[in-house]
Amino acid sequence: MSSSKPTISLGGTSEFPFPTKHQERCNVLITERIPSFPQDVRDAIVDLYCPRSLRAMIKASEANKDCLIRLYLGRRRRFETNSKFHGFTLRNFPLQQDQVEALGLDGAQYAKIMAGTLAEFYWSAKIDANDVVFVLAPSRANRSLESGSHKSPGTVFRSHVLGVHVLWVLDFDCCKRMSLDEAGVEQAVKAFYKNDPYFPRPGRDNVNDQALWREFRECFLKKSNVILGHKGPEARLPALWLEMVEQRCRK
Question: Phi-psi category of 32—alpha, beta or left, where left has phi over 0 and alpha has psi -120 to 50?
Fold first, then answer.
């Protein structure tokens, strides 16, 4: 049966036309499940970072099969020698900057992707990126990636520990519209610091953190200039955002 009206397929068996009054352009949220890291990667993470007494339990845990890695380029671990807390989970496992370095991961490239993504959020989508989440996880096309048939330069990473993976961004439910003016920039800066430390931070003492911020800063400006151009009142906003972020870290 054919119809000239837009249709939706339910369960692959029946088709129903949309009512005419709903046939208008609107915002659409498309969702998909982010793949979890496979067993060998999960076991490697457990062997590296889990207390020895918990390793067997964590590896056998059904809940810990849902393993995504939260990428915290803006924080390093603090080693508490007297801590009595020995909990561990692979769900939303926090991978911090010192661990990124220890695993030989490409923190600079992660930072560039984050910077470009933020620029797209701010100047193209006009949202403040409030409470978005950046995670490492396998690609939806990992099988073809491993065979070399899928070409996606600059976005696919290969690691001895994590295998083939990409950087995902999720959780947009707290994002708010922002105006392309000084008030909107201030709103975006507040969201940047309110969020978990996914992004590199300015003003750090560690030389590697300083280099990471420079990479992030440069890429953010370049991507922003591509979107906004170099002329007009909005062209100054990316530099203003960076100025506000850097000023706030000095307070």
Answer: beta
Contacts of 71 (CB under 8 A, 6+ apart): 95, 100, 110, 134, 135, 136, 167, 198
Phi-psi region of 165 (alpha: psi -120 to 50; beta: other; left: phi over 0): beta
User: The tokens of 98 are what?
Assistant: 């010192």
pLDDT digit string, tens, across residues 131-182: 999 999 998 865 444 445 444 434 789 999 999 999 999 999 899 999 999 9
Q: What is the pTM of this model?
A: 0.83
**pLDDT band, residue 32 (cuts 50/70/90):** confident
Adjacency order of strands within the sheet including 133-137: 93-96, 69-72, 133-137, 163-170, 157-159
How far is the CA of 185 from the CAs of 21, 49, 121, 140, in angstroms? Answer: 37, 38, 12, 34
For 66, counting Cβ atoms within 10 Å of its Cβ (0-12 exposed, 13-18 middle, 19+ buried), the class is middle
